[in-house]
Amino acid sequence: MSESNIGGNTPMLRQYTEIKRQYPGTLLFFRLGDFYELFFDDAILGARELEITLTARHKEHGAPVPMCGVPHHAVTSYIAKLVKKGYRVAICEQTEDAKATKKLVRREVVRVITPGTAIDEQLLEAGESNYLASVFGMGTGMAVAFVDVSTGEFVATEFMGDDAWSRIAEQIDSFGPREVLYPKALTPLFKTSTHSAEANQSEPQTDSGAAAAPAKGKKEQPTVSIDVKADYLWKTATLTPMDDWLFNLDHCQTLLQSHFEVTTLEGFGLSKHDLAVCAAGAALHYVRETQKSQAAHITGISYFEPTNYLVLDGPTVRNLELVESLDGNKRHTLLGTIDCTKTGMGARLIRQWLLRPSVSLGECNARLDAVAELKAAMIFRDRLREELSGIQDLERLIGKLNLNTATARDLVSLRASADHIPAIIEMMGRATSSLLEVLRDNLDDLADVRQLIATAIADNPPANLNDVGTIRAGYNAELDDLKQIATNSKGYIASIESRERERTGINSLKIKFNNVFGYFIEISKANLKNVPTDYERRQTLVNAERFTTPELKEYESRVLGAEGRILELEAEIFQNVRRIITIETPRLQGVARAIALLDAVACLAETAARRNYNRPQLTEDDEIDIRSGRHPVIEAQGERFIANDIALNNTTDRLIIITGPNMGGKSTILRQTAIISILAQIGSFVPAGSARLGLVDRIFTRVGASDSLARGRSTFMVEMIETANILNTATPRSLVILDEIGRGTATFDGLSIAWAVAEYLHDNAAHAAKTLFATHYHEMVDLAKLLPGVRNYQMAVKESAGNIVFLRKLVEGSASKSYGIEVAKIAGLPLPVVERAREILANLEANELDVTGKPKLARHLPSRGSKWRQQPSLFDQANESVLEELRTLDGEGLDQTDAVAILQRLKQRLM
Description:
single chain; about 40% helix; MutS, DNA mismatch repair protein, Chain A, domain 3; six-stranded mixed beta sheet; 5 domains; about 900 residues; 30 helices; Nucleotidyltransferase, domain 5
């Protein structure tokens, strides 16, 4: 049943329907007393998704109204469940006291919770950012902005040209937003997604009752004419279309300037990037509308160029298992191996560094200097990390302060966290590396903030402001007096009771309280003759009567008024304290950033010390020279690891061809080379005896095989698309990791493609990247004879008594075979299958052909005791007799006629 069919609905349901109209595309949680209720279609959907009972509200006329509800004290967990599934939830609260009106209580939406704007702990991962993305395109240009509402981080970029959309998609894949905003004009670009907001709900609207047309005074948005393919799918992001006018340049520029209180956006790097301004402005509009707040913790925006970072595309991040492992175990990732941060801020920063490493030699070396200092000073490092462990997530606490959702307990957490800063500043006084010195100078002990919270807020305040006890005793005189009255009420009432018993001579006289009559004196029927004349009758019971006195009424008024005023005054004081602290947001954010960076470098130092990592030497040269390199994730799992050397440059060792058996360690060598470069460029020590590393601008990997059936792609198609991206995008400063190219098609096709790819990466001046190329096509080793920058290496194998041992050592040269059958034997294939495979392989290696020119796959070698043996067929016998006759034929004495006759006869015998 739709809410549009309101017929004879009650005033409350009409109020619900009117509010719901203003927030299409959301599930409206409507506050009724101690419950949040959903009605109509929302109730049907909510009951299904939340697995709760669907009930109905009956009307006098018409069909029952579907409804379901959840308790107000547990609503956060229910909302979290819905938002994680991609739904948008509007919270509608009572905004006036029911006692203050005889009419319907006013209700308003106080917040809209969406996947990309969530700030509640149940919806956030401590070590991961929660990004909202905003995409805009016009002409042949596109832009994207990313904002983390929980922390205030805000960045944007734009691209021009035919590849603009693919580069935007690349950035979205890197940042991994939970929600993507876009103008409706760009809907064709997102049509392949199956996770859009419309898939679950009606079309979302970003502001209450906003019209679809441009606002008055706004220019029409130019038509989007970018020529791209809608061929990208975000499996984890909710897609939210918005009215086109919300991306209008004038609107967005004015909004950003007003928000940041500036007259120009030049200081943020946006002065010549109108598309980025449009994307960013729409994102900010959406944040402010959903949060019903000015979002003052978003204090700035940074324009970035992807060239500011080492670019890692989606396949590379997945293939190297940087933040997610193929088996789903987060410990089996590079992040899980190196992350021992003590704060949520530091954990998010380490993750960001891994996904977007630096390409600045100065920045990398500054971090390495700090890591080196902390690694060498174990006691200093341990004490520092102990203090850091007491600091809560300041970035998200600041976000809650500015979004008016911070509780008294959040302020206590802020104070407790800030109490550790003086000790950190004192310890940092001995730091000598430039980065640690800068961090020390930028740390603020926040003495005034700590003092205000310590003075105003109780040590253990209640979770709810509706409960008394938020404000510390001694902070406000009026509040203390009111609490004195409320606290001493029992004693005062007892004294009145004692005095009245003595005055009336009624020993059973009692003073009681209930919510209906307040304070009253209860006297039994047997003692009514002794009731004083100044008593006023309030209620008659079967066995007693209740009275009051002027004194009791006055005290009741004072006590009840005090309790109400206590709650009111505590709320006022708390709001004022929160407002004062919010004004200090820039200072607080500066401290939070410093603590995050300090935590990150201390973590890298701890990891280096624990795992015996060494400092890499970073250069602007074109070489990668790693000695005794190790794979950090495999090594951390406790396996015995064989270290290896690898050397690459753009001249003599530009392309390394690596051959050898499966399980021999080729893939490990490839991956650890890329990982070591990434670690070095985040400022980390590396798992190697030594490493001299030229900075790389991009790392590409083409590893493994996977289908993309949802988009109609085969394994081979996915492989070719990823390979094409590498060949079109790699530069001489890039590092390319290729593990088996061309294995998804026919052998000759695959070999031809692999050969051509290798030649291209070696010869093309614009794309001649340093490349590690692992292959089972042994023919590829001949490239070293033809191209000056190709070198052959192999994974060493030891053969003994028919068995093989994988030495997992990289040595110069090329493997003579792949040992695939030996690996199959180890894997447990039946022995007859293994033996038969060896026979077939021997035939192929001997290049034995039958008379038709085909390999003799069915030919058996001399018996070695194999049980799997067949008798030669008639065709085999015929072939052998023909061959025997040809061997004995004297061709010298044959004329042309005889030769033709013999060939025809032999041909008939073969048919």
